Amino acid sequence: MERRVIKIGTRKSKLAMWQANYVADMLDAAGFQPQLVPIETKGDKIQHVALSKIGSKGVFTEELESMLRRGQIDVAVHSAKDLQSKLPDGFKVLSFCERESPDDVIVSDKEIDLNDPKLILGTSSTRRIAMLKHYYPHITTVDVRGNLQTRLEKMKSGIMDGLVLAYAGVRRMNYDDLVKYWFDTERFIPPVGQGSVAIEIHENLPVETASRIKMATNHPLTEKVLLAERAFLRRMDGGCSIPVFGHAEMESDGQIILKGGIASLDGKELIQRTMYGSDPEELGTSLADEILQSGGKKVLEDIKSAMS
Ligand SMILES: NCc1[nH]cc(CCC(=O)O)c1CC(=O)O
To answer: What domains sit in the chain, N to C, each tagged with a CATH number?
Structure first.
């Protein structure tokens, strides 16, 4: 039988290419003929502006989605964390690949003492900044954007002592030996989706092909917890520039445990709750409602008005 070609749309950064190759390998093993189609997105081109200021949702996904819609690619590979919680009409997440550790770490070429009153850490994430301000108010943060390689160069030039990054990306780029501190998942809850690679498709992809791709790439356990996290994010109406965090795991009895919350931009307020459930959508939505009713709504509105 002829191997069906699957065109995989991806961003061009090294990490994005790692993710696309990871999916390509799984498709190859399942009898497809994968082909990478690397493209540059708006989010990659605008590097000097903080992401929270570019503002528009989907700066990393729009171009890939228009190629999916036109059938120029069959699937788009993203970090699950970069995918909007509400996809445009006609699109869906087909697969969530097996999750790597979702935690944040500090990467540096020297030892890091979190109690050092002069410590300067690089990050552009409003969530990481708010969390740092909350738990370590003496730490100074500086904005740093660009791909992992660019960020590491900026760090080595001495502007900052270390970078706060997702361990998953660090691992995939083989920078394990630069990890100097591992944040505790219980306190420093990661963002929704961190650590999992997601495959997005448009509904015009033939159902038969879609289901074969899903069989070859989807990790059902990861899918279940990610659906809970994403339902939570959708209800929170967060967007990537709001310090919303959420992380779900499967308990041994088959229940999902979902922890999540929101912080104010200055880190002074941090609302966090934990909930158990078996239906991912219901669980995610209930946790968000609980947080919104417990002061989260006010925090969210204050952030939105500060940003507009
Ligand atoms: N913010 C960008 C981004 N998008 C995905 C990852 C890698 C981790 C992942 O795939 O979840 C990173 C780097 C980081 O946050 O340190």
So the answer is: 5-98+197-218 (3.40.190.10), 104-182 (3.40.190.10), 233-307 (3.30.160.40)
